[in-house]
Amino acid sequence: MGKNKGIIGFILGVVIAIVLYFVNIPGLAHEGKMCLAFSLMTVIFWAFGITQPGYTSGLYLLLLAVFKVAEPTLIFSTWTSSMMYLIIGAYLIATAVKESGLGERIAYWYIAKYVTDFKSIIISIFVLTFILSLLIPHPWPRAFLIMSVMAVVVKSADIPKVDAVKIGFTVFAASIPVSMIFLTGDASINPLAAASCAPIDVGWMEWFKVMGLPMIITSIITMFMIMFLFKPSKEVEVNKAEIQKKRAELGQMTGKEKRTAFWVIVAIVLWMTDTIHGVDIGWVTLFIAVMMAMPKIGEVLTPNSWSGVPVQTLLFLTAAVAIGRVGAATGMNAWIAQTLLPSTIPQNMFILAAFITIVSIVVHLCFGSVIAVMGIVIPAMLAFTQPMGLSSIIPVMIAYTAINAHFILPFHNLAMLVGTGEENGMYSEKETVRFGVPFTLVLFVITCLVEIPWWKVIGLW
Description:
The model has no long low-confidence stretch (mean pLDDT 90). This protein starts with a helix and ends with a helix. The protein has a domain at 80-308. By secondary structure, it is mainly α. It has helices at 5-22, 30-48, 53-66, 72-75, 82-100, 102-114, 118-135, 139-156, 161-179, 190-196, 204-229, 240-250, 255-272, 274-277, 281-291, 311-330, 332-340, 349-367, 370-385, 393-404, 414-417, 429-457. The longest helix is centred in the last third of the chain and has 29 residues, at 429-457.
């Protein structure tokens, strides 16, 4: 099936869309039926990987516009909100930190100071991911930067291949929960979850208040699970002389690094004080990126830096947001909630959290794509829980946690997928399954026994 997977997915998606178009669906208006047909077709295209997701997303958006399923201002609403410019700015900042050498310098400094054995290597990966999540607002460049430093540690300490694979797996596995601590930890997905909470405005500090502690606990659980499941085959002694040599090769901190550090610190301060100054963090992030390109005060970003902003990802996000927003406007979300979900809503918050978690995991197992599943599950859960009068943050963040933190195979999360293979994180499906299966059960602990009690403490419900 592997070779014909794309063709099968394409035919299946088109056939399902045509059937839905012609069949009579009680309780769903024409626009809602069109939205359902195009949305399901697009999700199937994404799941089967018929082509690069940017092209599929572009097709979905133009179909909505051409068939007048909704107004273009709603279909492309991400481009008139700050979310898209937060993402663009974040990619540019990530490029600046990586290219300037600042991130690498911080990584070598930490390793030279605190890393001695295998256990401290694992801990250092989580700590560095946390530190760099404030400097580099995207998990992939962060993970690859840490991986490049870990490659030096592996080589200098003469770590066996079997243990090097465990270190590589840890680098990319750590990037998932740690990225969810701060709103800017993953600027391609977190803002999508934040935007889904509308009409509630979730800024940087609000995100940290709601998700910070639960995701720190999730990160710690992840770290200890990795230590338990992936023990080293022999004791490791880190070659500090080799690490110091690498630090020496970097030389004194350059003017470019200093300017990058200055603007990143300004960004962090402005992100953390968004409730005080009242400027949306999307505009703050774009402002910092622009300043990094200015003469004298910046000169970090160049015209070539724009290549670090993936247009295909922006189209993918636009389509994922459109599924939720157009689905709400056309009645598709409400119809899905009424048709596919139970008629009675669990009143007990722990049962509700477990229900949302299991639905999210099951759908994610089927479709794989985090953004695509968010586009399906989150709007449906919002419509399902609306009669309860809950803060929209609760169903959104439970679903988001269950979807984004969950993986069994690498394709379930792009952060894991990009790290597979010898030339990347060195790990394979074997490692992801070994960790992912037990961690799927842990997700219920996180959503039901960590998030719900914490949100009770801070007064969300």
